[in-house]
Structures are given as C-alpha cells and as structure tokens.
Amino acid sequence: MGKNTAQEKFFEFLREKQKSAKKFNKSEVIKATNWKPDTFNTYFGKGQITQFVVKLADDEFEAVNTLEIKFVEFKKRLSQSKHYQELGHKCKSSLAKALLKKSRDNMMLALELYNRPSLENKLDDEMDAP
C-alpha cells in the first residue's frame, strides 16, 4: 500500500485489537494513528466509527466488525458523506444497536407475513368484501 494513511493505521489497529480481543482507550488510538484528540471525538460523536468501535466504559473501547471486511469497505463506511449509513449509526450503545436491528428484522417479518400470497389470506379478504 505504500505510505499508510491515518485511516489505514486505524483500520489495522482495530483489526489487531479485535483479533486479540483486547480493549483499548482513546490515547492508544491517537498514538497509533497520529490523530489529534478531537479527531477521535468527532468520528465517535458523529457516529462514523460506532459500527467498528463500541464504548464499554468512560475511556474503554472494543473493536468489532473489522475482520470480515477489507480496507476499501472500511474507508467507505468512515466517509462523512451520506452514501453509507447503517440503521442506528449514531447509537453508541451496543444494546441500542441490537434493539434497532431486532426491530428492523421484526418489521420485515411482519411485512412478509402481511404480503404472503397464501390461500388463507386470500379467503379472508374475499369474506370481508361486501
């Protein structure tokens, strides 16, 4: 890749932390990436890295979702443009993200059930007609 950018360094840092299942703090990220302290705060505050960084305590974080993707995808997801934002991208809580995902799944299941072209549904509709 040649000269590593701060994003590449951040990606590698997160992958290493996730592989080893080690927690980290903000100062470790700043040291690994050469970011200014406000850069991490901005990325985290705007929800741009919350799909990769889960806050466990005041200054304790965990890396997630980095082992299954390549840097190109990681870079797209960090972009400040609106072209990629997952549901709940601004949620900092992993519980809130899990609840949103479950809600989305249940909504899709309800739509599939409602739109299922089964005989029983069609008979009910015909019986309700005047």
TrEMBL record:
It comes from the Bacteria. This is Uncharacterized protein. The lineage of its organism: Bacteria, Pseudomonadati, Pseudomonadota, Gammaproteobacteria, Alteromonadales.
